[in-house]
Amino acid sequence: MYPSTTPITAARVPSPAAFARRCVATLVLGVAAFAVTPLVHAQAPDPMEPPAAIIEKAATNVLARIRSDNELKSGSPAKVNQAVDELILPYVDFEKTTRLAVGRYWRQATPDQQQQLVKEFRNMLVRTYSGAVSSISPQAKVEMRPFRADAAATDVVVRTLVSDEDRDAVPVDYRMEKTPQGWKIYDLNVLGVWFIENYRNQFSPVVAQSGIDGLITTLRSRNEQMKVAP
């Protein structure tokens, strides 16, 4: 279910797949916490719902879905993909995540290249999320840490502790931005590593050597590899 651990570049940083595997007990529930939908039908985010409340409700709802759906719990590809589509995608700002992961090179990309980058990076993240969702333990728990932010803030960090029956609690933090559609997650920190920073360290050497088109080609190739990965 997980993609190859071959790094995108020779940079001495974890590959996205290796990062996901190393942090599986925490990342999978962190991914699950992107979900804020009821147990049956997806709904648009509530623009008025506070960010910490979104994360807290999300963990409860997703774990309830997993506990009640045996096919999802067993890793059914159709059920996993459905869960990703309904519970994750509406609540992630993929454009911002991609822009920050590409970093300073984003401004060098044409509008068409930017669209291709978002598309390929989104596809890669979706497949990573799919593998993560199928690995969530029904015994996993999320403890909300104190949330402090100015009432007028539009960019915040929500901090949690994620634990499982056979693992110690690990801090998982979410960077969220207030948008007209409600609060959206654009970055995730597991074991002290920010998701975007991890990818930026992968992408920068590729762009420096092969340009924006080289990064697009690399992402597309990685997605093809992930399609056939066991």
TrEMBL record:
<dbReference type="InterPro" id="IPR008869">
    <property type="entry name" value="MlaC/ttg2D"/>
</dbReference>
<dbReference type="Pfam" id="PF05494">
    <property type="entry name" value="MlaC"/>
</dbReference>
<protein>
    <submittedName>
        <fullName>Phospholipid transport system substrate-binding protein</fullName>
    </submittedName>
</protein>
